[in-house]
Write a structure and sequence with these properties.
Six copies of one chain form a homohexamer.
Chain A: E1 2-13, H1 22-29, E2 36-47, H2 59-73, E3 76-77, H3 92-106, E4 112-120, E5 123-127
Parallel strand pairs in A: 1-3
Antiparallel strand pairs in A: 1-2, 2-4, 4-5
Chain lengths: 134, 134, 134, 134, 134, 134
C-alpha cells in the first residue's frame, strides 16, 4: 500500500551557480536564470503493509517530516535564504532529491519511496531511490 | 498500455473500531475519529495490449465495475451504512484495498493493476496487487 | 477592490428537518437525505479601498474570522454535532447564509460582501447581503 | 456578454516599502515580507454586445494586451526588476489595480470591466473600475 | 441567494459561417476556423429567496434543464450536428447566449440570472440577461 | 530522476475505422463514434541521472519534441486532418502509443519512459515502453 501526502509552499528562486557567469546562466537556464517564484507542491509517498488500525503509516508522522521541510523553504528565496540548499542549484530535480533525503532521514528506514516536486501545472520532478541505484 | 478511469462519490465516515474506546480512537485518529466526510475520487487502472479496435479494455466494462462500487458508497455513511464495509475501519488504505478486491472480482482476471482513493487534495491511497505479495 | 480568501473543511451532513418524516426527507432531498459528506470550500469576499500598505484588509483579520467558522465545522457532522447549526437544515444555501452572518459579525461593519460555499465540483452557493434586501 | 481570458506567470516578490523598516515590514506583512514567489493567474474581463461574427471582442486583441503585461512580469522579481511596478508594493491588490490600468490603456475605451489576480489557490484580488468611483 | 450548477460535455466545433469564405474564416478566427473540440463546462446560476426547506430551487429542476441542453450537444459536432445551433456560429459567446435562452425557457420565469460557458482553462464566456438590456 | 512535462491541445475526433460500418462503430464506441472533441493533456516523462547543472534533461529539448506533436494535432480533427494519424483509430490508447513513438524519435535514445494522454478529467491513457515487451 502507498500513501501520498501533498503540502504546498511559495518560494522564490533563480537558476545559477557559482561556477557560471551571468551570461552562461542565461544561456543555460533561459528565463529561469532570473529571479522568479512558484507555488510549489511537495508530494511524498511511503509504502508498507497496512496495520490493524488500517494505516500504512500514521499520517501525522509523515506530515510532520514534510512540514519540517516546508518550514525551511516556505516564503523564502531558495537561492539565497535557505541554508539547507546552500550550494544547491534549485532546479526541480535538485529540490526533489534534496527533499527526499531530508524527509527520509526523519522517517523510519525503508518507508519513503518517492518524492515529487510540482513547480507549475506544466512540469513535475520525481525522485525514487530504487531507480537511482548504481 | 494502461487505462485509468476516475469516478467520484461523496460519503461520510469516522475512524474507529469495535476494539477501541472513544478516547483511544481520538488519540489514534485525531479529528478523523469524529463524524465527517469527503468528496472522494476512485481511480482504477487496467493494463493490457491494445486490440484491433484501439482499446486496452472497453471503457464501459471498467466503468460498470467501478460504478457498482460507487453505488454502494455514494451518499452513504461508510462507517454505519455500507454492509460491504462492515468491520472495515474506513481509512483510505482500507478503502483502496477493499475497492480493489471488489472491482477485480468484476473484471476479467489479471487486468486490474491498481486502485487509488483520493480523500482530499492533500492525500491519496494506492493499492497495487503486485506490490503486496507475501 | 475585492479580496477573496478560500478555506477548506471536511464535514458530514444529511438533509432533513424535525418537521419531516424519513420518507418526506427522501422525497424532497433524494440521496442527500442520507448521511454523507463533502470536502467543502468556504470563500469570503471583502470590499474596500486599498490603504497605503497596499491592502484592502489585513488578510490575517479575514482569515481569523473564517478560521473561527472552520474550527466549528471541520471534521464534524453538520447535522448533529455543531451547536451553531442547530435547527439549520444544512443545505449549501443555509450554510452560506449562516457562515455569512458569523463572519460578518467578526469583521469591521460593512466590509464583508459575499460568502460562497462550494459543496462539490458541480455546485456552488453564494450569499450576498445586498441582493437579499426586502 | 462578458469574455474572461486567463494567462499565467511565475514571479518573485516581497512586501515592503521604502517607508518601512525591516521590522515594520515583518510586523505588517508577516512571512510575505520575505522574498518568495508564486504562480500567478491574471484574469481580464471585457464586456460588450456580441457582433455578427459571434464575438464580444477578438480574443487576440485581449490576449495581446494581457501578454504585454505578462511579458513585463513573468520570470521576474516584482519588487526589484519591473520598472512598471517601481514604487508599487506588490500586494495582490496593487497588482490587480496596476494591471487593470495597463490593460485598459491597450484596449478600446470602456471595454475592460474587471481584472483579477490569483496569487495562490487560497486568495484572489479583483479590481472593477465601476466599484472604485469616488 | 444564488445557486450555480456545473455540467460538462465534450464537443467538436469550428468557427465559420455561410457568409464567409474559407480564407475569411481563417483570417477572422485563426486556428479556431479549423475543426477541433473541447471539454466544455456549462454553468447556470439561479437566484431567489431560500424556502423553508433551505433551498433557492430544487437542484433536480435546475439540473434537468441543464441536462436537456447537454443531451443535445454532448459528443456532437456543434457546427454540423446540432439542429438547435443551426445557423449559430459556435463561439463561446453565442453558445452562452443560446444555452441561456434554452435553460431559461425550462425554468420558472425570472429565476435564471446567468449562464457561463468555459471552453478551456484559459477562457470563459458569461451571459447575464440583466446586462444585455437595451 | 524523472521529469514530466505537460502540454495541452484541443482537438476533434470520432472513433471509427474503415473496417466498420456506421452501425458497428456506434455499437462498439457508443457516443464516441460521433464527432466530438476534447481539451487534451499530453504528458511525457524522461528519466536519467541529474547532471552538474541540476537537470535530468534540458526542458527546452523535451518541450520542443512535445510541441512538434502538439503542432500537428492542436485545433485539428484527429480523424480526418492529421496525416501522422492516418489509419489510426484515435482512441486514447492509440494516441498515447503514437505520440510516444513520435516523441521518442526526437529525443536521445533511451530517455523517454512514458507518455500519457488525458482525454477528460475522468480518463487517462498511459504508454510505457518497458511494459509493452513481447
Amino acid at each position: 500500500m502507498e500513501l501520498t501526502k501533498i503540502l504546498r509552499f511559495s518560494a522564490a528562486h533563480r537558476l545559477t551557480s557559482a561556477m557560471l557567469s551571468s551570461e552562461e546562466s542565461d544561456r543555460l537556464y533561459g528565463p529561469c536564470a532570473r529571479d522568479h517564484g512558484h507555488n510549489y507542491a511537495l508530494q511524498a509517498t511511503v509504502r508498507g503493509t497496512v496495520d490493524a488500525d488500517g494505516m500504512v503509516m500514521d499520517q501525522v508522522v509523515l506530515e510532520r517530516a514534510m512540514q519540517a521541510v516546508v518550514d525551511l523553504v516556505d516564503h523564502r528565496d531558495l537561492t539565497r535564504d535557505v541554508p539547507a540548499l546552500s550550494g544547491v542549484i534549485s532546479t526541480g530535480e535538485n529540490l526533489a532529491a534534496t527533499f527526499y533525503r531530508m524527509i527520509d532521514r526523519m522517517l523510519p528506514p525503508g518507508r519513503l519511496v518517492r518524492v515529487a516536486v510540482v513547480e507549475t501545472e506544466n512540469n513535475r520532478f520525481e525522485y525514487e531511490a530504487r531507480r537511482e541505484a548504481p
